[in-house]
Specification:
Elements (H helix, E strand, L loop, with lengths): L11 H12 L4 H10 L12 E5 L6 H14 L3 E5 L6 H14 L5 H14 L1 E2 L10 H14 L4 E2 L8 H5 L6 H4 L6 H8 L1 H17 L5 E5 L2 H16 L11 E7 L5 H4 L6 E5 L5 H10 L5 H11 L3 H9 L11 H5 L6 H9 L8 H7 L7 H6 L4 E2 L7 E2 L1 H14 L1 H23 L11 H17 L1 H18 L1 H18 L2 H16 L5 H10 L4 H17 L3 H14 L4 H13 L3 H14 L4 H14 L2 H14 L4 H13 L3 H14 L4 H13 L3 H14 L4 H13 L3 H14 L4 H13 L3 H14 L4 H13 L8
Parallel strand pairs: 1-6, 1-7, 2-5, 3-4, 5-6
Antiparallel strand pairs: 8-9
Helix pairs in contact: 2-3, 4-5, 5-10, 6-9, 9-10, 14-15, 20-21, 21-22, 22-23, 22-24, 23-24, 23-27, 24-25, 25-26, 26-27, 27-28, 27-29, 28-29, 29-30, 30-31, 31-32, 32-33, 33-34, 34-35, 35-36, 35-37, 36-37, 37-38, 37-39, 38-39, 39-40, 40-41
Amino acid sequence: MPAPTEPRHLSLQQIAEARHSAAFVGRTAELDLFRGNFDVRPEDPRHRFVFHVHGHAGVGKTSLVRQWAHAADERGALTAWIDETAESVPEVLASVAAQFAARRRPLKALDRLLGIHQRALHATAGEPGDGEPSPGALAAAQAGLIAAGTVPVVGALAGGIDPAAVARGAGGLRAVLGGRARQREEAGLLAEPVRALTPVFVTELARIADTVPWIVLLCDTYERTAPLLDGWLTDLLTPRRHGELPANLVLVLAGRRRLDPAHWAPHTRLTADIALAPFTEPESRRLLHGQGVVDETVVREVLRLSGGLPVLVSTLAANPGAAGDASATAVERFLSGETDPERRAAALACALPRRLDRDLVAVAVPDGGPGLHDWLIALPFVAGRHSGRARYHEVVRAPMLRLQRLASPRTWCAAHDRLADAFAARRDAAAEGGDPDRLWTEEAWRDAALDALYHRLCAHPRAALPEALRAGTDACHQDPVAARHWARTLAEAGEDTGSAVLRDWGRDLLAALTDHAPRATAAFGLLLTRAGLDDTSRAAVLVARGWDHFRAVEFEAALADHGRALALDPRSARAHQGRAVVLRATGAYEGALAALDLADEIAPDRAWAVRERGETYRRMGRARDALAALDRAHVLDPADPVTLASRGLVRQRLGNPEDALDDFDRAVALWPEYHWALVRRAHLRSVRGDPAGALADLDRAAELAPRAAGIAGERGDVYRTAGRFEEAVAAYGRALDLDPEYAWAHGSRALAYEALGRRDEALGDLDRALEIDPEYTWARQQRERLAEDRGHRPDTP
């Protein structure tokens, strides 16, 4: 294997890391074991491929793993760090790929598939083609989408994918999935992303392994990610499950609990199991001496109170207090160096919020004096003090919470209510001007909403639970990542209040959302069977589950859930809306309009209902009716960018390009990340003779979706329209690098080849387009035309 390349100059961060490592105390045996493993050949039975370190919170697992990472770097290893911020296996893979790319070891094949997967999960609707597909084409498209699983869509289709649009080949989902949603490979990727991505990841690891001495993957806080990763990681280690892993791969896991034998027992001989104990007395003394604590009386008191937990040794070293007070508790000792009783009380009160900033300190301690926040975040047990999300170390926070909850329940409830009100105000402020149907996808709103929920549950565990469960309906409906954060909030509130009911709900919802990710079907089932909701709330859950079925193209189940919702709550306008969208997707346009009539009777002049009517007219080919409805929807909600972008498309088709451009401009101004509107505006600018403006739009869209083949393909069209055929060929090539089965890009590149006089290559591209999509009528017509120009009829593909 090649020797590691030394950098010419050390960076500031590398120097700081080296100094931190030099100051690291203890864990000599664990460090020596890990370092020594690099000197044992993988074929040797003594070599370990998995290191699992476990122990109580505060015992120093993260610090040790960081030292292991530093030791791996010294051996020239390629390393990647994974923690609980990764919410799914695809996110883990994306994080590893990004870290490897930063070290100039990109995983290109994996990146391409991750891009397709990401586009499918966060797709915007493409432009439908003209005319209706044949029944056979519609059936094939629907079958492909059923295999594909969940494909949530926003944008002009407003809530779902129409299989008729997919069946139209070059239209429909062109910009979403590169025109091949029916293809078997992509259907498998969408339905089972882990199964599709993992073999590619393994192959890429094997390729990279030949260029570096070692590959080390480090998973911290594994107690949180184990439910998600246990099965996947052990499958990786199982022969012939996903391919052959390179022998120079080392996996590091760090968590509170031992590995689950149900998953890991077959891999015991590959694993070094390290139970991390508290510091020994000599190690604790070294840490204390390093912090200037040398008085033997104080040292002995710190040793007695800390139990050898490194985080407590550090905390008590900074505030050792007076020795000899045998009645002192650990909580009191955290603050024993502070003689001001008001500051001591403030430090206790500020343990209640899960994160701290200056405003929250003022809420937790209403009568706190100036400088309190700065004093608090400088305390040794406060982490992230410079990140804007300061927080108490959990080893310190947990006993502080327990002390306050038991000492004064009334004060506990009042304090949590104040914090809940403060976060609710932040939540409401973050909602201003936002789309109510997308709030859970907005991080600022989501964080404030969940903190408000957490504090209300802490103050009133049983009374606040029904509202918390109702909130989860929207979270599960809008965003699977938000849903897992919501379930974790319930679990944390259960731990911090000692409420078994909250703990159980959090645990079971997390399991449902993890086992069935990215779909929330199982979580909706729990809410329906166990939550004890009233009829209105049950109807809301059924509507959300109906959308879940719809997005998986399970139309019968979707209609059944919307029907059950209407049986419980006949005046649920959202249930009528959902039923209309499902009927529209199946081509039952008149039934969809009838359902929208009922929604309009219940909730007259709701912008979303009018917009859905306009969408239905647009898909029926009734452009002028669509324009009238979308005009009305815009009057009702002038800030809805989806209505504007949809109306822009209708106006363009009616031959009003200036008005269409104005609509696209306003949609993008309202929603700068709306890349579908940017792509549609680029197309319009191009046909109006503004290639510079079109390319600027596509540059911005590519920043938002760098792996979207549809954007690169649209760039090719801009170049081709402008007569820049060589650049067009290159742009279409880029689109096909991202998605080799992008039928539309093959067909469009054929025209650029033809303009350059390269007819054989043009015919080859058209042949490939028809191989991918045999019902691509336009490509067949172009191939016949080119073949006739050469004096012969083409063979039928």
